Description:
Radius of gyration: 25 Å
Low-confidence stretches: none
CATH superfamily of the largest domain: Aminohydrolase, N-terminal nucleophile (Ntn) domain
Oligomer: single chain
Bound molecules: fructose -6-phosphate
Amino acid sequence: xxxxxxxxxxxxxxxxxxxxxxxxxxxxxxxxxxxxxxxxxxxxxxxxxxxxxxxxxxxxxxxxxxxxxxxxxxxxxxxxxxxxxxxxxxxxxxxxxxxxxxxxxxxxxxxxxxxxxxxxxxxxxxxxxxxxxxxxxxxxxxxxxxxxxxxxxxxxxxxxxxxxxxxxxxxxxxxxxxxxxxxxxxxxxxxxxxxxxxxxxxxxxxxxxxxxxxxxxxxxxxxxxxxxxxxxxxxxxxxxxxxxxxxxxxxxxxxxxxxxxxxxxxxxxxxxxxxxxxxxxxxxxxxxxxxxxxxxxxxxxxxxxxxxxxxxxxxxxxxxxxxxxxxxxxxxxxxxxxxxxxxxxxxxxxxxxxxxxxxxxxxxxxxxxxxxxxxxxxxxxxxxxxxxxxxxxxxxxxxxxxxxxxxxxxxxxxxxxxxxxxxxxxxxxxxxxxxxxxxxxxxxxxxxxxxxxxxxxxxxxxxxxxxxxxxxxxxxxxxxxxxxxxxxxxxxxxxxxxxxxxxxxxxxxxxxxxxxxxxxxxxxxxxxxxxxxxxxxxxxxxxxxxxxxxxxxxxxxxxxxxxxxxxxxxxxxxxxxxxxxxxxxxxxxxxxxxxxxxxxxxxxxxxx
Length: 608
Ligand code: F6R
């Protein structure tokens, strides 16, 4: 959440910073700001709302600079006002700081600094940083930042510039992601590689507790004890084009349409059809440990957790390993029973979700083997887990997760095959799952070809203000995911739960104004689902059934039908989620909402 970009080089920093910031807008967008240094002077501008507002304010302004920092904010402490927007400044205005994360002891620090005469202009926790740095500043900016950070409790990813030190930019990280982009005669700092991909694909990931002094031609990284860190320059494989809209109206639609390719990319080079097994390079080192595990706990948040719930069914049915799925945000507050025979699987698109990261750290402390299913290469969860599998879904920019979910399900199927084949899964079963996985991309294409029908359906239903989503077994998590997709981008109240639960209370809500989406493919629980549909019909609820192509009998009980191709039961969610995503997308569009950047949300939740 929130985005940081910093630049130092020979170019005019403003355009580079604003372009980079726009690519981070999906991470938070309630206010933004920029600070530029030139001729030992500091210039700045801030605006409420989207980055375009900042751009408008900057147009016609006469200042420029070869070093600068900027920020797009997702409010935690303090309302989204101009005063609360970053950068924040020291009293003399010479030091500017942009900050992601939360300074937990900010109140104490603020009170102390106020006593020393510092004047605060915002309600934010972040503003203590420039004042603290100012307090320690004696000409060496890096040293002042280091001393300031030693006083701070909480999390931070920061970039700092000073008009008194115009040839450098300082960056530091603890708990909030930060990368250095290494260019030719120019260097960058960003909270997300997407911001700098247009300029360089060479990056250094800062680790927690590291601080960097960045100049245009070089950079040095040290730890908090001033020890030099030897760092590795990584090459980013994603292209700028992949992180842009490619002619589509919204990132979300582009990402939904990419899903056939995503399934191919997530399985590429990993299937061993003749052996009915898979090869997962990221798990090879721990393959022997995996043979010994007796329990799996999946930790994740939101959509990623729903993928985990599908994974629970897969792993228990096919790998025969008891599996639980935990809200990552609750994991460390319970007393989870975890030991060295437990594997924790963290599922996270961004690899930066604070709660998921905290769950992993807690599990490690207890001796569990930690594994990641992560999309963003080099992200914190990818680096902190013992081993893992990358999704290879490419950058996901729309706030509502779509293609990451299908890739998470695909990777979970691969892990199920691997663990199953280490245990009792037969060669034939392994072969069958692989064959079915290979058939998925074409089947997703079939669903996408019929998107016009889903668009029509969405228009019909876009006026309703409540929805219920139901499903059973492998498709129960899809009911939750379908409801989440709808509510987060259309702001329609929607709830999803196992179909059998409905009659234990929620059925009281049903009337002719309360449509119900029932995810009921022709699988082992189809008849049970239809019994629940009949109960809704008896209460005059509108019914949309999502079922398997050719299942004409569903037409008798539904107001509307969405068909998907037939698939192996455990893989059906990979197909069934696609119409649910399209439905939410079109409903949001018909309501005239900002699909890619829904209110109050941010792409990557790096605070607790
Ligand atoms: C919903 C959505 C969120 C994320 C959740 C976890 O569309 O995107 O629910 O799934 O915040 O994020 P990651 O996967 O980055 O850990």
